[in-house]
Amino acid sequence: MKKAIILAMLSLTTIAFAQDKKINLGIKAGLNYGDNGEIEFSDVTNAGENIATEDADDRVGYHIGAYIRANITDNIYLKPEFLYTQNNSSYETSFGKSNYKVKRIDVPILAGIRVLGPLHVFAGPSLQYIIDTELEDIELEDVENEFTVGLQFGTGIQLGRLNADIRYERGLNENQAEGIQENTGATIRVDSRPNQFILSLGLDF
Fold first, then answer.
1. How far apart are CA 193 and CA 170, in angstroms?
2. What is the pLDDT of residue 195?
3. Which of 16, 96, 102, 198 is such that its CA lies 20 to 30 A from the CA of 127?
4. From CA 133, how far away is CA 62, in angstroms rounded?
5. How far is residue 191's CA from residue 30's CA, in Å, rounded to a whole number?
6. Distance between CA atoms of 88 and 53, rounded to whole angstroms?
7. CATH for 22-204, among 1.20.1250.20, 1.10.10.60, 2.40.160.20, 2.70.98.10?
8. Would you list the domain boundaries of the chain?
9. CA angle, 38 as apex, 109 and 136 as ends, to 5°?
């Protein structure tokens, strides 16, 4: 239901804005490189004592979606985006190696300024709805919060209908998924906040 509401809001916004000559619609896709935070192992038989904590190893993920760029002035714009994103991480611990995937709907709401010719810089919040989390060989419960907020900032170029940008994203609030490792009985908590660099290519309609 929440996903349907987000899609409906995006469709209505697109239809309304598309009547304005200062509005550009487009599609985009690209790669993410980063991680989703640390993993913790706790002993449930010993008052939840921490057994181990390990940082994630960076891995490549991807994203695909659409955007609206509203030109407020010749140099300032707003750019809401609607993206499907998959973040990947891996953990090398004494319990073995595990891969972790987070699948999300992202809605960055960016404000940008053109600084020199085709070059521009931008920043803004990213609204995130987590669809699913998968830790290899471990059944995870749902994350604490399906809706979270992150921050993005970066730089890009616009060449005719083509555009490209690179940005950094960081999740702002801690958001863990939890599970039980069957062979040890240890409780596992995985931080699902993104911490990544994002490279995108886009095309205006």
1. 7
2. 87
3. 16
4. 15
5. 23
6. 18
7. 2.40.160.20
8. 22-204
9. 95
